[in-house]
């Protein structure tokens, strides 16, 4: 569905039907998806420019070019990337597009089992936790319920990371729009239930990290490549994004 929102071609009829249902009820989803993707690319450039040379991209979804490793290697060709997703269809696409690239790997794993992720051979082989790592959780945590303990997941995944590592999070919110009950119901039936959180609920996910400027903001406002978007362009976007640096 996310690939469809971005104008990609790697989606199926059932994805398109569900996505069109959501677009019909919540047309803002297109602006939010595209703004979220642009945030991902800017965040990757930022962390690699700061010296990061290894990235874990958790919840990558169907690979949509430019991918994380493509953007990172424009700055540092030696950057290593492990993509992780819990969808076997994503794994099939990854085998065709990602893992044939030297320095990249894919792990079929679930964010709700963070210890399994750390123990996965792809992570153990590619990631050296004695060196700084960037962990990307882009548009992932709003599919993790409170009962599944998103803060605990982050703590487990970031505990082995050394100072200088980075945490990148984007997260859907209802802070700017009313509840979209039909859209939420479609997601519940097609992927996973949505838990859209407010700003004050997302900030604690960065505990132990120092937020880079401008902090946790709507994704078009996070270090835009050009002038900040005007109110009209910003209005449809219901996604927060931020990047933190581990200092101790």
- The end-to-end span amounts to 38 Å
List the helices and strands in order. Answer: HHHEHEHEHHEHEHHEEHE
The gyration radius over C-alpha positions equals: 17 Å
Uncertain stretches of 5 or more adjacent residues: none
Principal-axes geometry comes out as: globular
In percent, how helical is the residue content? 25-40%
Strand content: 15-25%
Counted by DSSP, the helix tally is: 11
Give a quick account of the main beta sheet: strands, pairing sense, barrel closure: 8 strands, mixed
Query: Structural class, judged by helices and strands?
Result: alpha/beta
- What is the number of E strands? 8
Mean of the pLDDT scores? 87
Q: What does the model show?
A:
Helix 4 links the parallel strand 1 and strand 2. 39% of the residues lie in helices and 17% in strands. It starts with a helix and ends with a strand. It is an alpha/beta fold and 248 residues long.
Brief digest:
By secondary structure, this protein is α/β, with parallel strands linked by helices.
Key traits:
8 strands; 39% helix; single chain; 17% strand; 248 residues; 8-stranded mixed sheet; alpha/beta
